[in-house]
């Protein structure tokens, strides 16, 4: 499966993590449905909205790290994870 | 008490999900996969990590075409949205004249992109084109194949000609949806034409305009065929927009890895802008 179309492990892990997050959020939503609320973001959001905003900004954080610095991307990943958690909790 | 909705209907979405997976998700995954490799041929690929992204982000040529793209989309919106509103305001409200106007407006929208490019390519020529020949006859030094400003103006004019009718039609439908009572109330208050526009028509057009801006932004941001046919991206690279740079890279130079990395960045920009507009639309609806 992984040899088909030259799939590489890192891409496989990337999409597996995304799929995992989506699956987890689906189960979480079924177990305890969320209601829309307003946090520090200027708009009122649901849990899914905040996840989307978090993932999209994570992509931009990674790109910004690549564009302006030579720091390893693990730092960008750590920043993104912290940001995602902050967003999900207080966003 | 919040009633928990029954979510089992989501299973009905499964066929669509499978279709989308094959037509969109797997190709997208493939692009991500290509963006981390240097591929020379089947069975001859090397893992390069984020090297392509680093290179693409530092690439002067791509930065320039990205800037050009934003300029073009900005100019397109700045011209077409006010012009479209103006055209819609001046159109007759009903009767045979309204139908005639609608048909005339819709004509440019029906012409295929490459034909639009060809039309303007001939139209702008100094020797046989009416537009180019006319300008030259008036003493204006116009040559869209040699002059950067002329090339830009021609591409912009072409896009305005092609797509302003869409904005006008959307605004026209928005205007027709305003109840007559609003105008009568304004007349009783002796509101000026400007006040009617500012406080009745414009607010009522808000949601239509958001859609118009979104459509025009997306289309102009991904424009390829018309400038490619009209100027071929020239003179030099002055009208080479993003998708043309990308196509040259992916198909012309067969630089798949780099092109994949760049199309992902392109995708992220489009995704961000669409999300912003989508949020704007849905929040407008909530305010009502």
UniProtKB/TrEMBL annotation, chain A:
<keyword id="KW-0812">Transmembrane</keyword>
<keyword id="KW-0472">Membrane</keyword>
<protein>
    <submittedName>
        <fullName>DUF2160 domain-containing protein</fullName>
    </submittedName>
</protein>
<feature type="transmembrane region" description="Helical">
    <location>
        <begin position="12"/>
        <end position="31"/>
    </location>
</feature>
<feature type="transmembrane region" description="Helical">
    <location>
        <begin position="73"/>
        <end position="90"/>
    </location>
</feature>
<dbReference type="Pfam" id="PF09928">
    <property type="entry name" value="DUF2160"/>
</dbReference>
<keyword id="KW-1133">Transmembrane helix</keyword>
<dbReference type="InterPro" id="IPR018678">
    <property type="entry name" value="DUF2160_TM"/>
</dbReference>
<feature type="transmembrane region" description="Helical">
    <location>
        <begin position="51"/>
        <end position="67"/>
    </location>
</feature>
TrEMBL record, chain B:
<dbReference type="InterPro" id="IPR000515">
    <property type="entry name" value="MetI-like"/>
</dbReference>
<dbReference type="Pfam" id="PF00528">
    <property type="entry name" value="BPD_transp_1"/>
</dbReference>
<comment type="similarity">
    <text>Belongs to the binding-protein-dependent transport system permease family.</text>
</comment>
<feature type="transmembrane region" description="Helical">
    <location>
        <begin position="151"/>
        <end position="172"/>
    </location>
</feature>
<keyword id="KW-0813">Transport</keyword>
<feature type="transmembrane region" description="Helical">
    <location>
        <begin position="102"/>
        <end position="123"/>
    </location>
</feature>
<keyword id="KW-1133">Transmembrane helix</keyword>
<feature type="domain" description="ABC transmembrane type-1">
    <location>
        <begin position="66"/>
        <end position="277"/>
    </location>
</feature>
<feature type="transmembrane region" description="Helical">
    <location>
        <begin position="70"/>
        <end position="90"/>
    </location>
</feature>
<keyword id="KW-0472">Membrane</keyword>
<feature type="transmembrane region" description="Helical">
    <location>
        <begin position="12"/>
        <end position="36"/>
    </location>
</feature>
<feature type="transmembrane region" description="Helical">
    <location>
        <begin position="207"/>
        <end position="225"/>
    </location>
</feature>
<dbReference type="InterPro" id="IPR052730">
    <property type="entry name" value="Sugar_ABC_transporter"/>
</dbReference>
<keyword id="KW-0812">Transmembrane</keyword>
<dbReference type="InterPro" id="IPR035906">
    <property type="entry name" value="MetI-like_sf"/>
</dbReference>
<feature type="transmembrane region" description="Helical">
    <location>
        <begin position="264"/>
        <end position="284"/>
    </location>
</feature>
<protein>
    <submittedName>
        <fullName>Sugar ABC transporter permease</fullName>
    </submittedName>
</protein>
């Amino acid at each position: 499966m992984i040899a088909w179309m030259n799939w590489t492990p890192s891409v496989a892990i990337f999409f597996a993590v995304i799929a995992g997050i989506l699956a987890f959020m689906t189960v979480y939503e079924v177990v305890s449905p969320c209601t829309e609320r307003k946090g520090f973001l200027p708009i009122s959001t649901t849990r899914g909205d905040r996840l989307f905003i978090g993932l999209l900004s994570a992509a931009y954080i990674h790109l910004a790290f690549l564009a302006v610095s030579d720091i390893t991307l693990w730092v960008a990943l750590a920043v993104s994870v912290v940001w995602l958690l902050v967003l999900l909790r207080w966003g | 008490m919040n009633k928990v909705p029954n979510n089992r209907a989501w299973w009905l979405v499964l066929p669509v999900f499978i279709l989308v997976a094959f037509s969109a998700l797997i190709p997208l995954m493939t692009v991500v996969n290509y963006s981390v490799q240097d591929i020379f041929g089947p069975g001859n690929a090397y893992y390069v990590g984020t090297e392509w992204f680093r290179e693409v982000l530092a690439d002067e040529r791509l930065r320039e075409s990205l800037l050009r793209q934003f300029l073009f989309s900005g100019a397109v919106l700045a011209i077409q949205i006010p012009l479209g509103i103006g055209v819609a305001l001046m159109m007759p409200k009903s009767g045979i004249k309204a139908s005639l106007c609608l048909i005339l407006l819709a004509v440019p929208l029906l012409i295929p992109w490459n034909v639009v490019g060809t039309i303007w390519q001939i139209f702008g020529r100094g020797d046989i084109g009416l537009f180019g020949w006319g300008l030259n006859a008036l003493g204006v030094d116009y040559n869209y194949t040699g002059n950067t400003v002329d090339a830009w103006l021609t591409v912009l004019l072409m896009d305005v000609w092609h797509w302003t009718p869409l904005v006008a039609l959307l605004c026209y439908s928005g205007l027709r949806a305003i109840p007559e009572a609003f105008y009568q109330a304004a007349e009783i208050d002796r509101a000026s034409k400007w006040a009617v526009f500012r406080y009745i028509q414009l607010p009522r057009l808000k949601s239509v305009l958001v859609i118009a801006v979104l459509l025009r932004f997306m289309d102009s941001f991904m424009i390829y065929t018309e400038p490619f046919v009209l100027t071929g991206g020239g003179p030099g690279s002055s009208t080479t927009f993003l998708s043309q740079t990308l196509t040259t890279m992916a198909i012309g130079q067969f630089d798949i890895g780099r092109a994949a990395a760049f199309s992902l960045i392109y995708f992220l920009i489009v995704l961000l802008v669409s999300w912003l507009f989508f949020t704007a639309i849905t929040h407008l609806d909530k305010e009502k």
